[in-house]
Amino acid sequence: MLTVEELNNHIRNIPDFPIEGVVFKDITTLLTHPGALHDTVKHLEKACEEFEFDAIAAIESRGFIFGSVMAAIKGLPLVLIRKPGKLPGHTISEDYSLEYGTNTVEMHKNSLPAGSRVLIVDDLIATGGSAMAAVSLLRQDACTVAGAAFVVDLTFLGGESRLKENGIPYVKLIEVDSE
């Protein structure tokens, strides 16, 4: 099994994407390395052992990769947190800010039974905007957020503090302290 450090070595930096001044952490190079997806999910599962959850919510789009595999392995429901207009049923939505603009995410209303304990999964946390939007959506839908799990944490953008301020425990595999 690849170590977390070895997994980190398979993530490449793409400067000035999606806009000038942003250094994008590209996980596609991680995903094309044989076994790296499996190993990343195994590390996430281990890191999440302290959380009690009975469903997983994955944030579009790269969170779908890790969240869906975790849900399949554990035999748990998977809720998709998506960009507007992508879900066919009745949805609830939440606006949020990110390091280079604003966005909105949606989920199906009543995706899970009230009181469900949900783990949020995404590939990366930056400012915490999309993660906190997911928290808000789940809470609006009468769910409890058991925690959040990320492959990469861009610590210099402060997402961790937003989660902590809102009582959301979280884990990450890889910490990036600067661009």
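[next item in queue]
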Amino acid sequence: MSDCLFCRIVAGEIPATIARRDDPFVAFADIAPKSPVHLLVVPTRHVDSIAGAAGLGEQERAAMPLFIAEVAREAGIEESGYRVTTNHGPDALQSVAHLHWHIMGGTRLSETM
């Protein structure tokens, strides 16, 4: 999708600090981090949000949590702990209409986040 920010990052049209790239996912640093480690994981195929996850293949859906866990391990936050979240829609403040998971850690996180 040519107007999607994350699709353009996946395509290499917009620079990003890539943490890991294994088709069908890419992990990269958030440009406005909310914790010392704040990475985003996106599918390389465009899906608007978690509500559209059925648009991903069964193997992609099964591989997604494993990829997220591997990214967190490689980021060095597996032992201390981390948070994984996704937002859907305006009330959840989803800022980019492309399914993405936030991996946050590297410090004690707020209970209200």
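[queue empty]
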